[in-house]
Design goal:
single chain; 138 residues; alpha+beta; N-terminal domain of TfIIb; GMP Synthetase, Chain A, domain 3; 2 domains; three-stranded mixed β-sheet; 3 helices
Length: 138
């Protein structure tokens, strides 16, 4: 896997993935940024959310569960001093589908957290990560 990050101006950077997709990152005005895009650490948190959401949907669909929607809401706390790593992350899944069971969703979340989500497992080295979920019929 490869990526490239290019400085544009002030605190604005463009990251390009090896697959050719571009992500903008910027800082707040107090750091010379213009607040035009997410901060790099926000991007990291979003990436973790995408990784675990992908796993949960994939696991449920592979088990032939009818998933219609999956939203992951993340809240993180960071250390007060440098390096300001994530120290706590809470992940709340809202999974929507027809006939989904607590057992199936709980198992999918557990498998993602403990076996498949590389981002969660990596960030878990510095942060206490908690999970919960809700199931919506539909």
């Amino acid at each position: 896997m490869k990526a490239r990050v290019k400085w544009v101006e002030n605190a604005l950077f463009l990251g390009e993935s090896g697959s050719g997709h571009v992500v903008a990152m910027d800082g707040p005005p107090e750091s010379g940024g213009k607040n035009l895009a997410a901060r790099p650490m926000e991007t990291l948190l979003i990436g973790m959310g995408g990784c675990t959401a992908f796993d949960v949907v994939h696991i449920l669909r592979k088990g032939r569960h009818e998933v219609r929607d999956c939203e992951v809401q993340l809240e993180a706390e960071r250390a007060d001093t440098d390096p300001k790593v994530f120290t706590k992350i809470h992940i709340h899944f809202v999974v929507k589908g027809h006939g989904l069971t607590d057992k199936a969703v709980a198992r999918a979340v557990e498998l993602s957290a403990e076996k498949y989500c590389s981002a969660s497992i990596m960030l878990g080295k510095t942060a206490a990560i908690t999970h919960d979920y809700e199931i919506a019929e539909g």
